[in-house]
Amino acid sequence: MKVYNFSEHPSLVSQYLSEMRDVTVQKDRLRFRRNLERLGEIFAYELSKTLSYTPTPVRTPLDVDATCDVLTEPIVLATIFRAGVPFHQGFLRYLDNAENAFVSAYRKYKEKENFDICIEYLASPCLDGKTLVLVDPMLATGASMELSYRALLTKGTPAKVHIASVIASRKAVDYLQSRLPEDATLWVGVIDDEINAHSYIVPGLGDAGDLAYGTKE
What we know:
Radius of gyration: 18 Å
Shape: globular
Number of helices: 6
Distance between the termini: 36 Å
CATH architecture: 3-Layer(aba) Sandwich
Number of domains: 1
Low-confidence stretches: none
Helix content: 25-40%
Structural class: alpha/beta
Order of helices and strands: EHHEEEHEEEEHEHEEEH
Oligomer: single chain
């Protein structure tokens, strides 16, 4: 699996990440959600450079054709509830003709630090021959992402696979590289070296879903 790490190419991604990590700034849920959307937009633009385009004549008001490169690659944009929704929306603003898929994956705790990953909901179009872009803000262990990917494969075999995450642990990156197709691409804002005993990324930014939408019982 190929990895594109935005932190190795300084850009506005670093600015928005700094705000999302900051405990004082992240108290503003609206700003946190908007920063997730902004990162989705930037990620989508960079990813778009790898997609396929077809020269297409477009008639202008001067009654002349201008040849434009038009995106012709069929895309399915998928996300994992609930933290992934604003990140997904940023991607969708740029890849606005994409089909969409949604997966509900969550941690079901058996003990304080022991949990299984469960999926209760999946809605997806057929994936056969299409480009799957699966987005989720945080990759702590990589298990939720892999399970969601496997669930989506029940809807067909994509021609290409892109995974996008704002922050990933080194452990999650290594895990996905051993389990996803070799020609898949991971787009990540930054890779943190550690996860703690609760499987949260360190330094990370906390629970992205709670920061975007409020705490849950």
